[in-house]
Amino acid sequence: MNSISVLHIDLFQSGKNASGFYFNTMKNHLVTSHKHIEKPHRHDFYVTVLFTKGKGSHEIDFQKYEVSEGSLFFMSPGQVHSWELSEDADGYIFFFSQEYYDMHYVNHQLRNFPFFSSAVFPRKLQLESSGLQKELTIFKEIEQEYHSQNLMKEDFIHSLITQIYINAARQFAKEYDNFASPASVSYFKHYQDFENLLEQFFTAEKSISYYASLMDVSSKHLNRIVQTVVQKTATEVITERVVLEAKRMLMYLDESLVEIAFRLGYEEYSYFARVFRKSSGMTPTQFIKKYKS
């Protein structure tokens, strides 16, 4: 089984721009980075992409999205992605390390933005004409600043990045009415606590009661929180997180299906296979054939 490469930010940076931040037009990026990005891959950094021309598809963690003018994508470290784009595809792309962002926003976490906070939220916004023009102005400002030697350059770039993310979060709230309500804003913070715990313990703990006890709430209330924020049960979110990790492992680990099931906390492979099939609609073997063919 071939492994999926993990791309590091220094692969894309020249010495003069080795700051933990990278910016380019999509057309240039696709040409200069072709050897790194032509196959499915992962990053150890955060990525934002805005398409202004072209069509195609963009697959992020096995979820396929349509690409067209105004498609705005957000990716977190560790996500597997690939794309099939028309030859005229263009736009802008920037990415940065966690350390780069933290240097300027010690008290603000990227996970506060819904598109970076959870595997269950979509990683794409489709901008209409007015929204696209608004974002284009900011992207072009970043481009100009990136190539400058201006005083407080990094601070200005950080402020522009944050504008893009705040605009996107507001657009996200408009598209997802439940998320915009005052109750949901409060619930969203609790939901983030749940997902943070899930990230730590999902291979060992898969019961709602375990996470509810850590959060000092009842299982019923935790379910209410999760359903309000993402319209899914807590069990569904737990299972989806496990299956997502299983898909990643099946793609890039050279281990047997039984070993992968055991890594994810399943002593019986047959039970793991049933969970995987119920969630994804295919068996682990069928998944491998689909994505490794």
Give a summary of the structure in a few sentences.
The protein is built from 14 helices and 10 strands. The protein is of the alpha+beta class.
In CATH terms, the superfamily of the largest domain is Regulatory protein AraC
Q: What does the largest sheet look like?
A: 5 strands, antiparallel
CATH architecture of the largest domain: Sandwich
CATH topology-level fold name of the largest domain:
Jelly Rolls
Q: How far apart are the termini?
A: 11 Å
Give the total of beta strands: 10
- What spatial order of strands do you see in the largest sheet? 2-9-4-7-10
The value of Rg in angstroms is: 20 Å
Q: State the helicity in percent bands.
A: 40-55%
Strand content: 15-25%
Unreliable spans = none
What pattern of helices and strands is seen along the backbone? EEHHEEEEEEEHHEHHHHHHHHHH
Which structural class should the secondary elements be placed in? alpha+beta
List keywords for this structure.
alpha+beta, five-stranded antiparallel sheet, globular, Arc Repressor Mutant, subunit A, 10 strands, three-stranded antiparallel sheet, single chain, 293 residues, Jelly Rolls
